Amino acid sequence: MSAPQDTTRAIIEAAADPARPPLLMGILNVTPDSFYDGGRYADTEAAVARGLAMAEAGADIVDVGGESTRPCSKPVPESVEVERVLPVVLALVHRVPVSIDTRHARVAEAALDAGAIMVNDVSGFAADPNMPALLGRRKPLAVAMHMRGTPEDMMAHARYEDLLGEVTRELRARMETALTAGLPEAHLFLDPGIGFAKTWRQNLALLNHLDVLVALGRPLVVGVSRKSFIGQVLGLQNPNDRLFGTAGAVALAVARGARVLRVHDVAEMRDVARVAHAVATARPEGAAP
Ligand code: HH2
């Protein structure tokens, strides 16, 4: 793999260019309790094998997490999170670009020291007061996701008078926090936080109006993979049954401007995303570009 700064630059360039197909971020939860892959990759060896398989399947980034953030989940001590993710990050960084999915600056810093190039924070850098300063100091790629409250209580905060306006304003505030702390703007990615402090209908509406967030001027990461809003639409309780529903949501997200898709099923969603992107960028012959 190329040097970390070259990889970082290549990801920035690819994500910023809407003419290029979107990037795929493979989900790797080294947890016993994640809503879909919990327990499958809880030991280091299985997790590393899964990360390499996702790289082989075309993942541009592998997002390693050591704490489930599904609704009502309880926080995990930072030391446990570090123990879970660090050996996996160390084993993967020379083979595939690695993102660390954490709300905790200490965990993020340990992963960056180990060679991760991106910090993916579902709290939008709000859960840990040390996170913005870390981003300013180390200047990794960083994803600010929209959420309210904590995973434990977020569903009580799913009340909006103006969903698009409020999510936009709150994400802009996250963006300003990171930039004020010294993160270069080119390193910042935004994420609507599908499934976080939103009802299933709010998730659908947000996906359908992603263009409002695209207007914030930063590449959008979107995570719909096997989430419960898909189950609500289809009447499917079991995340195992939500692959085709995920494909529908991924295709739509790409058409609405998502630049990074966070998914469990990399090979399948890579094809879905590429075809959706080819359709969404096709122009009739003879028309002005
Ligand atoms: N969703 C989850 C976790 N991290 N990060 C970003 N940027 N966007 C997302 O939509 C997102 C995320 C939740 O999904 P998952 O990791 O599959 O499950 P769990 O939280 O149960 O580990």
Q: Tell me the quaternary state.
A: single chain
Overall mean pLDDT score?
96
Radius of gyration: 18 Å
The end-to-end span amounts to 36 Å
Helix-strand pattern: HEHEHEHEHEHEHHEHHEH
Q: Ions, cofactors, ligands: which are bound?
A: 6-hydroxymethylpterin-diphosphate
Structural notes for this entry:
The protein is α/β, with parallel strands linked by helices and 289 residues long. 44% of the residues lie in helices and 12% in strands. The chain has 11 helices and 8 strands. The protein has an 8-stranded parallel β-sheet with strand order 6-5-4-3-2-1-8-7. Helix 7 packs across helix 9 and helix 10 packs parallel to helix 11. The longest helix is centred in the middle third of the chain and has 18 residues. It is globular and about 55 Å long. The N and C termini lie far apart (36 Å). The mean pLDDT is 96. The structure holds 6-hydroxymethylpterin-diphosphate (HH2).
Layout of SSEs?
Layout: H1 4-16, E1 23-29, H2 44-56, E2 61-65, H3 78-92, E3 98-101, H4 105-114, E4 118-121, H5 131-138, E5 141-145, H6 163-180, E6 188-191, H7 200-208, H8 210-214, E7 221-222, H9 228-234, H10 243-255, E8 260-263, H11 266-280
Parallel strand pairs: 1-2, 1-8, 2-3, 3-4, 4-5, 5-6, 7-8
